[in-house]
Amino acid sequence: MAEIRILLVDDDEIVRTSLGCVLEHSGFIVTLAANVPAALKLISGPETYDVLLSDLHMPGAGDGLTVVSAMRHANPRAVTLLLSAFPQMSAAVRAILQQTDEIVVKPVEVTSLIETIRRRLASGALQSHKIETVAAILERTVDSTVQEWFERIQTGTTLMSVPMSRELRCRHLPMVFSELVSRLGSSQPIGSKELISSVAAKHGIDRFRQGYTAAMLVEESRMLQVSIFHTLQINLASIDYSVLLIGVMSIADQIDYQLSQAVASFTSEMLHAPS
What we know:
Layout: E1 5-9, H1 13-25, E2 29-33, H2 36-43, E3 51-55, H3 64-74, E4 79-84, H4 91-96, E5 102-105, H5 110-123, H6 134-140, H7 142-154, H8 157-160, H9 166-170, H10 173-184, H11 198-210, H12 214-234, H13 244-272
Parallel strand pairs: 1-2, 1-3, 3-4, 4-5
Helix pairs in contact: 2-3, 6-10, 7-12, 10-13, 11-13, 12-13
């Protein structure tokens, strides 16, 4: 039988070393990592692992889901197991945990864990969920997110006080999403002053001419963020957690920048409008 290589990730040194020793005595080749950055470095290295066994909650940047996402990319055939001291999960968390093959509840019963590892290796890793970047999810769900945004707008009496067709109200959004996806794929740092959004500037002018106030511009931008983040929430089971945080921060930064450009052009148009 081929040697089985296990990557064990846990910030607790006692758990890490003692469990590692037990697994080695059971015939596995075990590599230890004390935190998420160390695990990510090992996963991206030359070694290939058959099993990932990672604690779910660890201090510092990232957690077990970050490690699982990285392993799914590096080796989709690897079995992934998460260790958690909290077996009672909310519905949202259970959806997220669909990315892993199984949750092992702490304290670990070693005999049961070894049986689980061997059973999962025999049946194969979970293949039912495709892991996607935040940009890929946004690109795939543009139409449904725009529809949700429009439905939210319809519930707001202030915004709906300006009569407008759906086409006019949503006309700017395809380019807004195009800029968001482009931003997510770029290396622009958060808070960059080098961003350009021609669609936002035009949107501000259009909204002034259509009868909006500056406060209404802010409100529809807020609703756009809510709609986008709701889209990400309902796609939690397929999100690549290794890039989720920077993705969410980039989305918020980009939308805020687009809003500032829209308000600037709105204000300029208002100041130059005939009395």
